[in-house]
Structures are given as C-alpha cells and as structure tokens.
Amino acid sequence: MTLHIDGMKASARASLNGQAPRCEHLDTSPATEHGVPQCAGCLALGLTWTRLLACLTCGWVACSDDSPGKHAWEHYQETDHPVVAALEPDPAWRWCYVHERTV
User: Which candidate in 42, 52, 76, 78 could, as Cys together with 87 as Cys, close a disulfide (CB 3.0–4.6 Å)?
Assistant: First the structure.
C-alpha cells in the first residue's frame, strides 16, 4: 500500500489492528524476561524516574524519556536495541526508537 501525504509517498504495511504501519523491529525482538523493576542509572545518580521501560531485545530495565535520566534512550544509543515496553501501568505499550513511535 502506498500513502500519499502532503506530496510525499510512503510505503506501509498494515499493523495487526490496521491503524498504523507494522514495525518490523517487533519481529526481530526475542522473547526476554526483564530485569529488576528499577533504573540502575537513576539509583546511582540519586534520581527519581517517572516510568520504567524494559528493552525487548535484552530485558534491560531503565527509566523513560520523560524521566530526568532518560536511561532507556541511552541504552538504545549504546546498543541499537530498537523496541522497549512499559512495565506499568500499561504493559501493552511499546515504543520503537528507530521509527520514533508507539508500536
């Protein structure tokens, strides 16, 4: 399917729910157990996190981008692991750093 938005062409595959293009990074993320529900980076710096995210590639747990440390983003920068999932309150929420959107 080709989308035409403001004169731009973009190829897209429908997601399972049909609302957004499917993220192929979800297909390459192995099933992993997440680590301890705390941000080691924030604990070391004495910071408080807003929300915790778990890397779907390796299970590393770190604080979200709306936390002062942004340690999940740092983990992505260091490892190129593309997708994280919220630990709570909505564990179905996932974010792809490559596509910069929820998936």
Answer: 52
